[in-house]
Structure formats: C-alpha cells, structure tokens
Specification:
The protein is built from twelve helices and 14 strands. The protein is α/β, with parallel strands linked by helices and 338 residues long.
Length: 338
C-alpha cells in the first residue's frame, strides 16, 4: 500500500536562497504528521511543492501513489490545502464561499447539496453560514478555511501553521477537530513552530532546520534519543563567555553529564543533558561551588521537542526564530536602501 505522502530528496531554490536543500519524508495513511521547525527552515516551501504551488528543482513527490510532478491535476484532487494566511472574500457568506469552492472543484450538484451542510455542521458553523465571512472571528475564519479544504473529501489534508494567531479556545477546537479527522481515516500533515501543538497532535514528527530533515520519529522516540534529563543552568543572569566556557569544561568532566551546550543567545546559559538522577542538580551545584562558580538559576526536566532540536543544532527553536527574524529585518533594510 502506497504511503499517503512520499517526498524524496526534495530541493528548491529561490534565486540565491536555497529554501529546501534535501528533504525526504514519508507520511502513512491515517496519521497526523508534524513538520516542526523555525520560520525559514523550509516547511512552507516543502508544502508548496507538495501542493503543486511551486515546482521543485529536484526530487520526487507522490500523494497516494500519484506523482505530483508528472500528474499534478490528479494529485490536487487528492489534496486539501489550508494556507497559513486565511484567504476569504469578506463580502461572501460562509455558505457562498463553500459553494464557490465546490464549483472550483467541479463537484456534482448532488455532492454539493450534501457536503456543504455536512461541513458546516462538522465545524460548528451552522449559525454563521448565512453571515458574511468578514464578520467572523479569527477562529471562525480558520474553521471556514478548513471546511473549504475538506469539501472535496481529500485523502490528505495539508495545513500550514493551522493555529497561528488563534486564542487558546479556538486552538483547542482545531486540535480536537484534527484528531477527529484522523480517527475517521483522513491523513493530516501540518507544519508548526509551536512545540506543544506538534507534541500534542502528531503521531510522528520530522524536524526541519535550514532546509534539511535533522530528526524524525514519534515524539516519544525523539525525546528518548536525547538520552537523559534536561538541565538549564545560569551561572549569572548574563555570564561572561569565558566563565561559561570554564563551567562547560568543568561540567563535561562529571560522569552524570552527557552533553553541555552554551546558549549565547540567552545570556550564555548552559543546557545540559544528564542522567535522570534525583541528585543531579545537587552534584552540579557542588561541583560549581568547589570551583568558585556561582549558581544564578538551575532547573531539571524531562526532554522536550525543543531539547531534540537543541541537541541536533546547538540552539533552541526560539533562538532560531530570533535569528531568522534578524536576518529578515536586515534583508528588508538592505532592500529599502536600494
């Protein structure tokens, strides 16, 4: 049986920017698969290539055994795509927008009369169906966008950052709906930079960094690969780099410490992977005290997906987001100066 989505050695460049260097992943039918990574990692470009909105420079993409490159029209029939930005005509009612979407998919009249009421009921939009979408809240707009993406009953629903900008209540509603879809047999592929969203929803995850898949597996498998508990340590609120390096060398000599990374973006704090022992914090503090180094703050926790990313790249997802934002700002300033 063919996987729901197969991507092999995908590459995509925009001018001098290599958006996707080498992405390979396989999504099985009936699962929620998460693509996790910071902005600029290549998530959206990967989805655009999958959904026939961008032509890859190299690689192979299939949806339910259909080549996206060789047979894009048939592939589109098997895909539902909901972009990050909600694109609705605010002068149309919810029902009118779904009727327009149905016409674009050339759905038979009998199917339209059946599916639009189904989608409206499924997503709790009945009482809003005849109101203009411009009056909808952000959560209602996202639900209507989901309804449009599901109207033709695709094999695979592709969602780019499905809950960006939504309040907690709306996010939980979307999460529950996606789980319901999965349980009914629909394959769901989502991108997100929300760690808790991917951890809560995804059956399997691929983490993308700078256009490359750096880790994949179930959330539990990925966290187990970190190999121990996570300790976050601050020598001072903002430690000098020399002092942080001294602490790093000291801590690496301790038998219970498996890895030490200096996080320069967060005041030269230290991120450690340690054996899951109750006395780990005490041992670390005693070693620092004997070396004449203070302890401003220290905590221990089980690994998270952010720890998986940190272990693979040497930086947290937040640091990567900040770096991407800084690059975008510099590029914008450079463009404005021309």
């Amino acid at each position: 049986m063919s996987p729901a989505v197969l991507i092999e050695k995908l590459q995509k460049r925009y001018g001098s920017t290599e958006a996707v260097k080498d992405v390979s992943l396989q999504v099985e039918a009936g699962e929620i698969f998460g693509l996790l990574g910071p902005n600029g990692a290549g998530k959206t470009t990967t989805l655009r290539c999958l959904c026939t909105l961008a032509d890859p420079d190299a690689g192979n993409i299939e949806v339910s055994g259909v080549s996206v490159i060789e047979n894009p029209r048939l592939a589109r029939q098997r895909l539902g795509y909901v972009a990050q930005e909600v694109a609705l005509d605010k002068v149309l009612t919810g029902r009118e927008l779904l009727e327009l979407q149905a016409a674009l998919y050339h759905l038979p009249r009998a199917a339209i009369q059946q599916r639009i009421p189904e989608m409206l009921a499924l997503l709790g939009l009945d009482e809003w169906a005849n109101k203009k979408s411009g009056t909808y809240s952000g959560g209602l707009k996202k639900r209507l966008d989901l309804a449009a993406g599901l109207l033709h009953r695709p094999d695979v629903l592709v969602l780019d950052e499905p809950t960006v900008g939504l309040d907690i209540e709306s996010r939980v509603a979307v999460w529950n709906f996606l789980r319901q879809l999965r349980d009914q047999g629909t394959t769901v592929l989502i991108t997100s930079h929300y760690l808790e969203e991917v951890d809560a929803l995804a059956d399997r995850v691929a983490i993308i960094d700078r256009g490359i898949v750096i880790a994949s597996g179930t959330p539990s498998e990925l966290k187990d690969r970190v190999g121990g508990d996570r300790v976050t340590l601050r020598i001072r609120e903002f430690s000098p780099s020399e002092e942080a390096e001294q602490a790093k060398t000291l801590l690496e000599s301790l038998p219970l410490v498996q890895q030490v990374i200096i996080n320069s973006a967060q005041g030269n704090s230290l991120n450690l992977v340690v054996e899951p022992q109750s006395e780990a914090l005490m041992s670390i503090q005693q070693a620092l005290q004997q070396a004449g180094l203070p302890t401003f703050g220290i905590s221990q926790a089980r690994p998270s997906l952010d720890d998986v990313y940190l272990s693979a790249t040497g930086r947290t997802l937040l640091d990567a987001e900040l770096a991407a934002g800084s690059r975008d700002l510099k590029a914008e300033k450079k463009q404005n100066m021309r």
